[in-house]
Fold this protein.
Amino acid sequence: MTPDGQHIVGPVPGAAGFFVASGCNVAGLSIAPVIGEELARWIVDGRPSEDLSAMSIARLGRNGATRRDCAGRRRWEYWHFYSYDAPGA
């Protein structure tokens, strides 16, 4: 799980030629093939066919969050995603 519960897809800033496709947990398995196709297109053609900027790793930024803070947010996302007794579920 990512801290915001969304996928991370695309190039990693500051690491030329390094791309990532992450956050495809069990529920993401249905979208993983499309993400793989778009990522392959991005690598080969220089850009994806769809706007994937909302899935950029850059959205997580360097907002001063500690590793512990991120781990806490990931646990919260996981619990709220999979728990049947979560508030609002």
